[in-house]
Amino acid sequence: MKKIILVVVLILLLISLVFNVPNWFLSQEHQVKVTDKINSIDLDIKGVDTTVISKDQDYVKAELKGKGNVNLSKKGDTIEVEYHRQLFSFFNFGRRTQLVVTIPKDYDRELKVDAGSGDIDLQLSKDTVLSSLELDVGSGDIDIDSLNAKTASIDVASGDIDLKHFTGELKIDVSSGDVSVQIDELVGDIEAGVSSGRIVLDLPDDSDFTLNGEISSGIIQNHFPLKNEKNDRNRLRGTHGSGKYSIDLDISSGIIEIK
After folding, report:
1. How far apart are CA 71 and CA 202, in angstroms?
2. Backbone dihedral region of 168: left (phi > 0), alpha (psi from -120 to 50 degrees) or beta?
3. Cα–Cα distance between 65 and 86 in angstroms, integer?
4. What is the torsional sign of CA 38, 39, 45, 49?
5. pLDDT, tens digit, for every residue of 43-54?
6. What are phi and psi of 139, to 5 degrees?
7. CA–centroid distance for 169 within its chain
8. DSSP state string for 25-65
9. Which one of 68, 82, 93, 202 is CB 3.0 to 4.6 Å from 182, fit for a cystine?
10. Calpha distance 157→175 (Å, rounded)
C-alpha cells in the first residue's frame, strides 16, 4: 500500500514539473504603448498577487515572476492584462507568484480591476487622475495608498480593502468583508451598501454632506454632529455643514461607521 501511495505522489510530482515548471528565476515581460485612442486599461488578475504602479512612461507593462502566464494585448480602445494559472499546480515550492503592472503616470482614463482572489497593492502617483476606477474583489486584501478618480466603484464579495487619500465620487457595495476609506477632501457623492460586513468612512472635519441612512438590520455609527437629525431604528438622516454632497447608506446586516 505504501508503495502505491509513493508511486502516486511521484506521478503527481512529475505532472506538476512537466506542466508547471518553476520559473521564479525567470520572468515574463510584455508592454503595449498607450495612445490617444486607448480609453480603458482592464486587469483580469484573478488568483495572483499583483502590484499596480504608475510611472513616468507611455506604455503599460506587465511582468510576471512565478507560475502561470500573463497576456498583454490591445483590443480596440482597451489594453487588457490577463493572468492565467497553469494546470496541475499541485506543488508551489514555498514561493508565491507575483505580477507587477505599470501604467503611465499621466493616464487619465478608465481603469478596471477584476481581482477574483489574490492580494492587490495599488500604488498610484498623486499626478494620476483617473476618469473612473472599477474594482471587483472576490476575495483578498487590497491596499491603495492614494487614489484620485472622478468616480470609483468598489464591489467586494469577500475581502478587506484599505483605501487611503481618496478624492472623488465613490460607490461601495460589500457582501462580506471590511472596507476602510480615508478621504482627503469630500468633492463628490458617496453611496455605500453592506449586506454583511463593515465599512469605515473617514471624512475631513469640514465636509459638507447630507446623510441618508437606511437600516434593515445593522448599525450606523456616526461621529459627526448633524443638523435636522432624524434618528430611529431604521433610518438616520441629517446634514453637516452646507449639506452639498449626498452620503447614501443602505445596510442589510453589518456596520457603517462615519468618523
Report:
1. 38
2. left
3. 13
4. positive
5. 999 989 999 999
6. -160, 145
7. 16
8. TS-EEEEEE--TT--EEEEE-TTSEEEEEEES-SEEEEEEE
9. 202
10. 5
- Note the helical H segments in the chain: 2-19
Own/partner pairs, 23-26, CB within 8 angstroms, 24+ separation: 23/65, 23/66, 23/67, 24/65, 24/66, 24/95, 26/65
Residue 187: partners with Cβ closer than 8 Å, 6 or more residues away: 167, 168, 169, 245
State the cell numbers at 257: 461607521
pLDDT at res. 118:
83
Cell of 153: 466603484
Low-confidence residues of the chain, pLDDT below 70?
1-27, 86-95
Please state, in angstroms and rounded to a whole number, the distance separating the CA atoms of residues 159 and 175: 9
Rounded to 10 degrees, the C-alpha dihedral 241/243/244/246 comes to: 130
Cell of 128: 494620476
Query: Smallest Cα–Cα separation from 78: which of 110, 45, 44, 122?
Result: 110
**pLDDT tens per residue, range 223-251:** 999 999 999 888 999 999 999 999 999 99
pTM, to two decimals: 0.85
